[in-house]
Amino acid sequence: MVGRFAPSPSGRMHLGNVCSAMLAWLSAKARGGEILLRIEDLDPARSRREYAETMMEDFRWLGLVWDRRVPDQSSRSGVYEAALERLREKGLLYPCYCTRDQLHAASAPHASDGRVIYGGTCRNLTAEQRAGMTKVPCLRVKVPERVISFTDGLQGPYAMDLSREWGDFILRRADGVAAYQLAVVVDDGTEDVTEVVRGRDLLSSTPAQLWLYELLELKPPEFRHVPMLLAPDGRRLSKRDRDLDLGELRKDHSPEDLIGLLGYLCGLTDRREAVSARELAAEFSWDKVRREDIILDPAIL
Ligand code: GLU
Description:
Layout: E1 2-5, H1 15-30, E2 34-37, H2 49-62, E3 68-69, H3 77-89, E4 93-96, H4 100-103, H5 127-131, E5 138-141, E6 147-152, E7 156-161, H6 162-165, E8 169-172, H7 180-190, E9 195-199, H8 206-215, E10 222-226, E11 229-230, H9 246-252, H10 255-266, H11 277-282, E12 294-295
Parallel strand pairs: 1-2, 2-3, 9-10, 11-12
Antiparallel strand pairs: 4-5, 5-8, 6-7
Helix pairs in contact: 1-10, 7-8
The structure holds glutamic acid.
């Protein structure tokens, strides 16, 4: 059993990030498995080395220690290019020249969550049309016209027809950087990760990722999408919510206090009391973990 931490070093971790990482760690440790650490620093504009260093220090402080660090995503562009090449050979990749404005035009189809569905404008351009374009394109992968379904280990059955609800999606951005969807599949697939535990916000990306697993002939892991922590107004915590980030929380709380709080909020314990990650692992079971998002009233801190 191999799980992973896959943080994006774009800011200090907040309690929601810690909650997902804690559940990934507990799930692995409760079954004698291994946890990998992979820094997801694909986006050069948002990623900073200092944030990665601080995240590692925060994980250690919390007692969520990883067993093995695998290469940072920023060092793996050659591996992602090789994967793109395989998809190109299958005729499933094409350049897209659409501008932001074109993509977000009022007439563009939208998914139920408000996301724009790519309508396939550049899917069937001729070689001459492509040669006439001046914009640097991104690369998209064609999606199939069928439902992709899987059973999430926490949320249950989930299905999506990518052609209707997602559209052909980007695998390499116009600036040459591999897209998250590609990198995460290539990495989890080649690093032999067997269980992915992450926030519920990524549940809807999973069918797209399963499509890539299929195309790249990689074995998909099991997925467990865990509750998000929400602010009292229903907003998701973000790395910008400085008041719930570890820099602030570490001033007034011990690691056991925060792990105990998260364990209680997730349903692992009946009472809020200080506990170490190791102690919590001894009684961990996915049956206890709640599925629904958690409203975090700052007063509880
Ligand atoms: N790097 C992503 C994040 O920090 C996690 C992606 C994943 O777990 O698949 O939100």
